[in-house]
Amino acid sequence: MKEEIEIIVDEAGERIDKYLASHTTLSRNKIQNLLDNELITVNEKLVKANYKVKENDLIIVSIPFDEDYDLEPVNMNLDIVYEDSDVLVVNKPQGLIVHPTLTTKEKTLVNGLMYQIKDLSGINGVNRPGIVHRIDKDTSGLLMVAKNDFAHNSLVQQLMNKTTTRVYIALVYGIIEESKGRINAPIGRDKLDRKKMAVVEGGKPAVTNFTVLERFDGYTLVECRLETGRTHQIRVHMKYIGHPLVGDPLYGPKKQIGNTGQYLHAKIIGFNHPRTNKYLEFDSELPDNFKDILEKLRKGEKING
Q1: CB 260: neighbour CB atoms within 10 A?
Q2: pTM across the whole model
Q3: Least enclosed by CB within 10 Å: which of 6, 148, 235, 272?
Q4: Which residues belong to the active site?
Q5: pLDDT tens digits for 221-269?
Q6: Domain residues of the chain, as ranges?
């Protein structure tokens, strides 16, 4: 299995090996090895290490997962809120990555699933068994997991058809005056900072519907319902309308509140069962740190710093 990284060159002149070393976590030696094995293309053409990148070049890096990647089962005592022979729903804790990546060697949700669940679908390869969709490391909440390929295909199709229910709770900066709103703004890679996503012309369609649940002194608690599932969608959209998520290290203010990342929780997940077609919906409680900050705000306490 391979993972692909796409990079659009924003500044011309550097050798491709040097450029990639500064724009990815890959070492120069690793980049040279990938070039030698014809796993790096520029505008769909193979290049040498001395190729000098041009602005708007599309670089695609195909990186095989290490064969010795440690995917041993790990007892994480995961909170499985529903399970049958086809699907399960897991309540992912904050701070846990969903599946292995090329830049992360820490244990993931997949390690925990492999310990607790006997069968998982194999469509996404050996590094992502059962994984149908994902949420960010510091976002907590509910995820659908497929136990076989039949269920996996059905759940993916439902996501594509926008028939699933995905409801998040977020705490954002500022007072949102409207009671509800719809953000329809395309999301793509931030042209100024490749680590970020942003609302950009020509990005992938992205729609977030929000409803105000509660207002505090300088903050608003909102419910967000997703029509699409773009990377960092809620975080990007809320920043776009001037209300970034509290605690967000990537899209929020430099001075963060708390040390657990953005206050974002995937509270409700709903889908049609792949085999029976019966609609199932599950709810979950906010994590303790989220409850604590809301309690402080309700009491009028300061949460800065």
Answers
A1: 16
A2: 0.82
A3: 6
A4: 136
A5: 999 999 999 999 999 999 999 999 999 999 999 888 888 999 999 999 9
A6: 2-64, 66-161, 162-305
